Amino acid sequence: MTPAPVSAETVGELATTRPAPAGTAALRAALHARRLLLLKAVLVRVERARASLAPAVRTRFEADWALLERAERADPAAVRGLVDYPMTGAWLGAALAAEEGPGLAGQLAYLTGLALAAAVRAGCPVDGERAVPSGRLVLPGLGVLCCPSRRALLGGRPGLVRVTDAAGAAEVRLGRSAPGAHRPAHGGTGWLGLRELPGSAILLDDLDPYRVPAPGIGPEALPAARRPHSEPAAWAARWLAARALLSATDPARAAETGAVLRAVVPLAPSGRPGGPPMSATLRAAPGALLSQLPEDAGDLAETLVHETQHTKLATLHELVPLYRPGGARHQVGWRPDPRPVPGVLQGVYAHLALADLWRRARNGPVLAYGWRDRAERQFDTHWDQVGKALSILRESDELTCAGREFVQEMERHHAGLGAAARSSG
Question: Is the dihedral of CA 205, 211, 214, 219 positive or negative?
């Protein structure tokens, strides 16, 4: 599947960072097309590596792949949501990068849970038995079943999937539900289900093994927060308050975060006190916001806007390349370390969106969390930093023609924000 070419007008709209329905639709199509290509690449790799894989591994892979295809035929839209889930992308990248032999075999085990989750979403019946080498059967976007016996028995009827540990130590029954939701039809021993953040279909994913790379995130190599230390109640409360804050300031941006993001991944607390919370977006898993728990609703609202832009730009670059490989590094105002051109572009894009947000916030209603006071301080800082970094991009020879046009459109929006700020006093 190849995504339809995106129009220059749509790319221009995306360059302003403002929410654009046509842009969001184009990015979704591009993401799905890439996921299908990566899935096919995994299939080709397994075929080429048959001699290095044990017969049991090949048999399990073939059964899982057949179940995934059957689910896709039954309900393409439901399975599309699962294929496009952020952690599916992280797994695909790991599977394609794994060393041949045991390394690849270990990665392929994840397909069992992926296929089962697809069957649940599509309402397909399942049967048979599957190996669970890790002892934890992960169903992406749904949850995890502990399987001490390292074997899972599958059963059920159309619309209801039953998964049982072979030794009877755990069981869950999962009924078909709306895309993005998870709803076990019955409780079950050994089952941990994912939680939805209130008022949205966005998941608080504190279970998937691919949610954070093994080395960790950021200078401190932060790992993912694990249950019971992921603080779901605190995340839910902060999420509601942040969404209310965004909706009051810029309803279009609030809606965009709900349309672009699919999951929030809690990161472990920092080993050092103080400092802003760490947040990140993985290029292999756009749509997942990785973050430590922000201090307040204002911090989370800012993080949501910031990381949403990273997801948009990472997906757009796969569709319309904006830069070429290069080695130059540049100093920017928001980071202490010099950044390569891709990092400068990502930072400019995210901070331009924040400047846009702060201009609206300082002219908007007086809200809690010192929101308007923060806007007064932050707009000038971000606007100045973005202006200086735009000059770096303007002079770079690492941008493609599309990248140069993209930067020019960002410059126009940046100038417009400055003019609007001066006219409003």
Answer: negative
Question: Residue 418: which residues within 8 A CB-CB, separation 6 or more?
Answer: 383, 387
Q: Cα separation of 230 and 147, whole Å?
A: 22
Amino acid at 225: A
Which one-letter DSSP state was computed for residue 323? Answer: B
Query: What stretch of H or E contains 169?
Result: none
DSSP 367: -
CA distance 79 to 282: 22
Query: Does residue 123 have a pLDDT over 80?
Result: yes
* 264-283 b/e (C-beta count within 10 Å ≥ 16 → b): bbbbbebeeeeeeebbbbbb
- What secondary structure does DSSP assign to 211-260, as a single string? SS-TT-BTTTTBPBP-TTSS-HHHHHHHHHHHHHHHHHH-HHHHHHHHHH
pLDDT in tens, 338-375: 999 999 999 999 999 999 999 999 888 767 768 888 89
What is the pairing mode between strands 195-196 and 203-204?
A: antiparallel
Q: How many Å apart are CA 399 and CA 390, to the nearest integer?
A: 12
